[in-house]
Amino acid sequence: MFAIFGNPIKHSKSPTIHKLFAEQLNILQQYKKIYVPINKFNNIINYFFKHGGYGANITIPFKKNAYDICDFLTERGIKSGVVNTLKIIKNNKILGDNTDGIGLLKDLQKINFIHKNSNILLLGAGGAAQGIIYPLINFGCKITITNRTYKNSCNLLNHFNNKKHIEVIKIEDTYNITHIKNINYDLIINATSSSIKNKIPNISSNIIHNNIFCYDLFYSSNITSFLKWCLYHGAKQVSDGMGMLIEQAAYSFFLWYGIMPNTTLILKKFKKKYL
Fold first, then answer.
1. Are residues 235 and 123 part of one domain?
2. Interatomic CA distance for residues 55 and 46, integer angstroms
3. pLDDT tens-digit profile of 176-208?
4. Which DSSP state fits 96?
5. Which residues are catalytic?
6. How many structural domains are present in the chain?
7. What CATH code is carried by the domain that includes residue 76?
8. What is the mean pLDDT of residues 163-174?
9. Which residue in 3, 29, 163, 197 is deepest, having the highest Cβ count within 10 Å?
10. Is-contact 215 239, C-beta < 8 A?
């Protein structure tokens, strides 16, 4: 049995994606959504694993909680400090992995939004942001983190301890014309939950230019509020996180079964049938 755990969870397309993976590879799989009240994560995930659960995906806001319950971690899990994929291994021990960052990187490469020296502005400093940083800096990118709460950005900087590839700025600094002229970002990634609430991060439109790529980790059948804002202010190339969702799910599937689905075919099928 497999499931995705989160709060909110209603919008999740993960069960549909894993169903398509299982069909493609002729695997029987039971996968469902589980809503988790805040402060109930440990109880619910432990119950799941004690009653036949084999693998789990974890979404907001429980990725740090998931990291804390793991007995073993992959290198990606260790470096990230948050996990989105769990698997029961020998002696009922829990293995944790983070497939978000590698899934994002794979999608950004597929749509040509990234190169090894990309200068990235990362909006957000929560679990979603933390989960994607390691593969991006490992790829060779430079990341500037900005967040509503500056202290949280600083905490992320301290966690990764890589001042060569990561810096932080206060969100009000995005309104500083001198700063924006000095730093020309190649890619903006919205890792806040703003689009779930149909809102926009409080950043200046000065950072938008014709050649910038804008990516929202959130995905929707309609254009997200953040991407709509980017287009309005002059961005030409935008993408939501649907490709990332499918890529990270494929890496989760691989952790569970040792088989990698064909994500290109799944993405086409998913967009055609379910969006």
1. yes
2. 12
3. 766 666 678 999 999 998 887 888 888 999 899
4. E
5. 63
6. 2
7. 3.40.50.10860
8. 89
9. 3
10. yes
